[in-house]
Description:
Elements: E1 13-20, H1 29-32, E2 41-42, E3 45-46, H2 49-55, E4 61-68, H3 76-86, E5 90-94, H4 101-107, H5 109-112, E6 119-124, E7 127-129, H6 133-143, E8 147-153, E9 163-167, E10 174-179, E11 188-196, H7 199-214, H8 225-233, H9 242-250, E12 256-260, E13 265-267, H10 271-288, E14 304-305, E15 309-311, E16 316-317, E17 322-323, E18 327-329, E19 334-335, E20 340-346, E21 351-352, E22 357-363, E23 368-369, E24 374-376, E25 388-390, E26 395-396, E27 401-403, E28 406-407, E29 412-413, E30 417-418, E31 421-422
Parallel strand pairs: 1-4, 1-6, 4-5, 8-12, 14-17, 15-18, 16-19, 17-20, 18-20, 19-21, 20-22, 21-23, 22-24, 22-25, 23-26, 24-27, 25-28, 26-29, 27-30, 28-31
Antiparallel strand pairs: 2-3, 6-11, 7-13, 8-11, 9-10
Amino acid sequence: MGFLAMETSAEKVVAVIMVGGPTKGTSFRSVSLQTPKPLFPLAGQPMVQHPIYACRRIPNLSQIFLIGFYDEGDFTLYVSSISNELKVPVRYLQEDKPHGSAGGLYYFRNLIMEDSPTHIFILNCDVCCSFPLPEMIDAHRRYGGMGTILVVKVSTESANEFGELVADPISNELLHYTEKPETFVSDLINCGIYVFTPEILTVIHKLSIHREEKANMANLPSGDAFGYSIRRANLPKDFFRLDQDILSPLAGKKQLYTYETMDFWEQIKTPGMSLRCSALYLSQYHQTSPHLLSYGDNKGASATIVGDVYIHPSAKVHPTAKIGPNVSIAANVRVGAGVRLLDCIILDNVELQENAVVICSIIGWKSCLGQWTRVQGDGDHKSKCGTTILGEGVTVEDEVVVVNSIVLPHKILNYSVQDDIIL
């Protein structure tokens, strides 16, 4: 079964963005009950839109695919809108069940290969970075291998939270890969962004055949890396992981290479990290989309704007409010007199009444904060309640204080809370 594109004089590139599904990301549940996580706004744009916009910079891009197991209807309006805006086809492909990061690619291989692309980008939606995709594909051509992985150096203490790898310091060849090791291997980690030749589909096909053949065998031959990973994980026959099932066995075989980014990189696993990543994207707008930033003399009316702030054109901000840094205000928000906002995301149709204060928090759709309320987190984006979160339709009555807490949708708070989860 051959998947290699026929040689042509012009390259053609497709991008595949893995968006997951509703059974994943339970730590994101407090703000994803109303909207799929990939459509949750960071710096005023849906999470998935940041990698999509980055794909625009790839030369010879022909299509963008979103693969996940959310209901197709959740993405219909979005993909139609973004396709029209970019003038590049964006399609959502719904899996019948989770197939894994490599399995989803293989499941939709015929659609992905319908334009005979010469290169396939694979990106994870819950990654926040500057997406140096043109630089990656340039490096990939120089290396001449089957695939190139975006990597970044992190602290020794946090490295074991990710896939650690060892690369040749001269050739950048991937020599060793291990996913979340118990002991330290390297401070170089996998960023979850790849570019491959279509040969990757041939590799997954061979793995599929191998898994089919070995499915009913209790004992597998020693030294068989593919078989070993299957036996240990007891995986379904059609579930393939890009990291453990592909990267680990092919490391050191002159097929995979690395491209290191020196820029920011984060994983968006919790609502608190979405606040951190929103701030990173707001800062990046200075280089990529300065028109989206607000200043005191434009979209923020005459309000005081401090640092990086996004304000939707439909929002109403009182001139005496003070906004920023690191604030994103969505559509139809009403910000009253004397309001102070710092390091927060304010979602659609929120009302912030006079002298309300919001710090290190996410305020859900259609919520209302009364006069002199204070909603605040301690700023630890990785802790469970370090970011205060109000779900959709929450009302905080006058002079109530909410600190380091999570409030699920449609609650009315007429008393102050701290370090609590209001169900």
